[in-house]
């Protein structure tokens, strides 16, 4: 068993939230693993992928809403703040919540990779750890770099991450397990990569 030394945080959550509130609309800020992360403004293909997912999920599960831009307090993971590309939750679940909502009730968090330098660290390593530690049932990573869809399920609240990780190439069918219980045909995603 490896013991990792805890890194010092760049700042407090209160300081981060003040900076994030003052940031221009051209950037999205996150605070994960004690560090500020800057997400690129999404491109048209990125937005199209999220819209495609919204339509598929709403067809199969009309009792759910897909939230874009909803910040989550991933407090279990070093008092973090994450802004997933999308969050699937029961209809009107986040009504009345502020910019940073408690993740309880989120069924699936979705990230679509951007073409930036810290995608690997943030989307493939830190976020699955944070979302799993918060108990979010499913983390869906649509990875435009590797043309894969990775479904993380079975969250591990104790150490973070997920017990089950299944990866499929664009073009294959992917099952989003319970609580979603829907299958996605990912063929169309081939159209939205560079």
Notes on the structure:
- It is built from three helices and 13 strands.
- The strands form four sheets. The chain has a six-stranded mixed beta sheet. The chain has a three-stranded mixed beta sheet with strand order 5-4-7, with helices on one face.
- The protein is 22% helix and 32% strand.
- Mean pLDDT is 86; it is low at 1-6.
- It is globular.
- The chain has 194 residues and is of the alpha+beta class.
- It has helices spanning 13-22, 44-60, 119-134; strands at residues 28-32, 35-39, 64-67, 71-74, 80-82, 86-90, 100-101, 108-112, 138-143, 148-155, 162-169, 173-176, 182-185.
- It has one domain: tt1808, chain A.
- The longest helix has 17 residues, at 44-60.
Kindly report the average pLDDT value. Answer: 86
CATH architecture group name:
Alpha-Beta Complex
Poorly predicted residue ranges: 1-6
Structural class: alpha+beta
The helix content, as a percent range, equals 10-25%
Number of domains: 1
Indicate the proportion of strand residues.
25-35%
Separation of the first and last Cα atoms:
40 Å
Please report the total strand number as a whole number: 13
Taking the sheet with the most strands, its summary is: 6 strands, mixed
Report the total helices.
3
Estimated radius of gyration? 16 Å
Q: Supply the CATH superfamily name.
A: tt1808, chain A
Any idea of the CATH topology?
tt1808, chain A
């Amino acid at each position: 068993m490896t013991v990792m030394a805890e890194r010092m945080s760049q700042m407090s959550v209160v300081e981060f939230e003040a900076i994030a509130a003052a940031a221009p609309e051209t950037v999205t800020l996150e605070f994960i693993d004690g560090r500020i992360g800057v997400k690129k403004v999404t491109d048209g293909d990125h937005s199209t992928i999220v819209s495609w997912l919204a339509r598929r999920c709403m067809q199969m599960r009309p009792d759910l809403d897909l939230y874009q831009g909803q910040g989550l307090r991933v407090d279990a993971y070093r008092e973090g703040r994450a802004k997933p590309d999308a969050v699937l939750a029961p209809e009107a679940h986040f009504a009345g919540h502020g910019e940073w909502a408690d993740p309880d009730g989120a069924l699936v968090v979705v990230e679509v990779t951007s073409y930036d330098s810290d995608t690997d660290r943030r989307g493939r390593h830190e976020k699955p750890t944070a979302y799993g530690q918060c108990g979010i049932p499913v983390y869906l990573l649509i990875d435009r770099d590797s043309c894969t869809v990775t479904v993380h399920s079975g969250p591990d609240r104790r150490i973070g991450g997920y017990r089950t990780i299944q990866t499929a190439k664009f073009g294959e069918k992917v099952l989003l397990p319970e609580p979603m219980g829907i299958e996605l045909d990912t063929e169309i995603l081939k159209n939205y990569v560079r």
